[in-house]
Specification:
heterodimer; A: 5-stranded mixed beta sheet; 11 strands; 22% strand; B: 272 residues; mainly alpha
Chain lengths: 283, 272
């Protein structure tokens, strides 16, 4: 099980408290959306989960073990920008994860292993609707296609946790709706816990099984420096006076990921309809 | 139409680009003609015919003493020094630039010493190099390497640091080690940028080469120019300067074409 536990986590930069006393347990296979105003610490929360930053106090447990303060292959990530390698083709971008895994010195696979990795990558590209674009460089893809590629690339290492940092923020509404269908399908079909930072409340409620709001309870400028955001109810937030989780919704009606191995035909049909919108060649 | 919206078409572009060259040549012809009308033996602004004669003498007739075609043996000697030196400094810059830019440990170790060393005026080191390495090719190559490497290293390190941190994190989430990131993410992204940096160092490399040849050499383009200076042989110097300029320009052009052919992704990534 890869439940994620934040155990009284604080994050400070010098005197500046960003996050205060974050206490939260995220169940395996949930889809958590983090929302809140700019600068409320939701991205810092994600970065700590990613291993890019260490908590100042407290600890983060994943599957019962303390999290290493370094990004690793067990946690995939998709950023809003710069998520794919510009110097590699679409196919190479997906394969590179497997090459890192199996070729420690060269970082490059040859012969039969290469062909196996290629087949695997093509299957993934097909699943995200990028079949036919294998030899293009990312600069030739639209924003939505680049994010699809970033998803395929992240999924290739089969992470248990997928972190999304405003991945669809820069996309047009129509394309965003298509990619929502895709991410739902991915979450349904893989053993994945998804944590997504977003600005878009409707996106948070549409996709998430749980929506967590971050907020800074005190807003006087002289206090902003000293108190960070916290997680918790309003009263606790006021007494603690840091940025915290102020709302934690279980989304209703209750969504759960379908049991693995059963993909429903409806989602797949949606996906096929949806991908055509996102192709500049088709428009 | 506003001036800033007027874009010349192909023909006009060519004509406009040729205009300053034509003006320079024209100005030279007028000046040279005026001086030669006054004194046919004037050496300062020789006529094109005189320069062509000198070029024939230097490039197409063997030297009576050595049997060499001087201009070609000079070119060969200068280019081999220049290219050897540039190859060495490019390689050093690539290795140390990536180390300094990618690894904080290497950055704190080598960053300050590179920053200080790059402020040493290379020409001031030339006497030391001549004393230590002798008057041969070694000292000249060393001067060019010292003169260009440090700037290239700093440039590379800065460009490595310009790689969005998202890409380095993404690679780590795909399980890459430091070595794999350097080899498959950083190095391929640096190669086309390295070409840009080397293009900018071609000029300084020639400067150091000619300075070193002027002081102690027995062949080379710079050596020849400074040798014939004693006889005010402008008819040799000017063709040599044009030839050096042409060589430098061709090197620049070659690198630009190499960048476009070898790294087709780069043009798109640069604008994105």
């Amino acid at each position: 099980m890869t439940g994620i536990v934040f155990d009284k986590v604080w994050k400070e930069y010098g005197d500046h408290v960003v996050l205060e006393r974050i206490d939260i347990t995220i169940a395996p296979r949930s889809f958590v959306a983090l929302v809140g105003p700019s600068g409320c610490g939701k991205t810092t929360f994600l970065r700590m989960l990613l291993g890019e930053e260490a908590p100042t106090r407290g600890q983060i447990l994943v599957g019962g073990a303390p999290l290493k303060v370094e990004p690793g292959a067990d946690r995939g990530v998709v950023f809003q920008r710069y998520s794919v390698f510009p110097h590699l083709t679409v196919l190479q971008n997906v394969m590179i994860g497997r090459e890192f895994e199996h070729s420690r010195f060269l970082g490059k696979l040859l012969g039969a292993k290469r062909r196996a990795a290629e087949t695997e990558a093509r299957t993934l590209l097909d699943a995200v609707g990028l079949a036919g674009h294998e030899t293009k460089y990312p600069a030739a893809l639209s924003g939505g296609m680049q994010q699809r590629l970033a998803l395929a690339q992240a999924l290739n290492r089969k992470p248990k946790i997928l972190l999304l940092d405003e991945p669809f923020g820069a996309l047009d509404p129509g394309i965003r709706a298509d990619i929502h269908v895709l991410i739902r399908k991915i979450w349904n079909e893989n053993d994945l816990t998804v944590v997504m930072v977003t600005h878009d409340l409707s996106e948070a409620f549409r996709l998430g099984t749980r929506v967590i709001a971050f907020e800074r309870p005190r807003n006087r400028p002289e206090e902003l420096e000293r108190y960070g955001a916290t997680l918790g109810d309003d009263l606790a937030a006021q007494t603690q006076a840091g940025a915290s989780i102020t709302r934690d919704f279980e989304v209703w009606p209750k969504k759960i990921a379908s049991p693995l191995g059963e993909s429903d035909a409806g989602t797949q049909l949606d996906l096929k309809l949806a991908t055509s919108n996102d192709n500049p060649a088709a428009s | 139409m506003r001036l800033l919206n007027i874009k010349p078409d192909r023909t006009w572009s060519f004509a406009l680009a040729a205009l300053p060259f034509a003006a320079l040549i024209g100005a030279y012809l007028i000046g040279s003609g005026m001086r030669l009308a006054e004194n046919p033996n004037d050496k300062l602004l020789p006529s094109f015919n005189a320069m062509l004669d000198a070029f024939r003498h230097m490039a197409l007739t063997p030297d009576p003493r050595s049997g060499n075609y001087l201009m070609w043996s000079d070119t060969l000697s200068s280019l081999s020094l220049l290219l050897t030196a540039l190859a060495i400094s490019t390689f050093i810059a690539l290795v140390f630039g990536i180390l300094i830019g990618l690894l904080p440990i290497a950055g704190t170790t080598f960053g300050p010493v590179v920053a200080v060393a790059s402020m040493v005026p290379p020409l001031a080191l030339l006497p030391i190099l001549f004393i230590v390495l002798g008057l041969g090719d070694g000292a000249k190559i060393a001067l060019i390497v010292i003169g260009t490497t440090l700037k290239l290293i700093r440039d590379m390190a800065l460009r490595v640091k310009d790689i969005p941190s998202e890409l380095l994190i993404k690679a780590q989430t795909l399980g890459a080690s430091t070595w794999q990131i350097a080899l498959r993410v950083v190095l391929p992204q640096m190669l086309p940028r390295l070409i840009d940096s080397v293009r900018l160092e071609i000029g300084p490399a020639w400067l150091f080469l000619i300075a070193a040849e002027a002081i102690a050499a027995d062949s080379g383009l710079g050596y020849r120019i400074f040798l014939v200076r004693r006889y005010l042989a402008m008819d040799v110097i000017i063709p040599y300067v044009i030839w050096i300029t042409l060589l430098a320009f061709l090197m620049d052009l070659g690198l630009r074409l190499l960048q476009r052919k070898a790294f087709p992704w780069f043009a798109g990534a640069r604008t994105a």
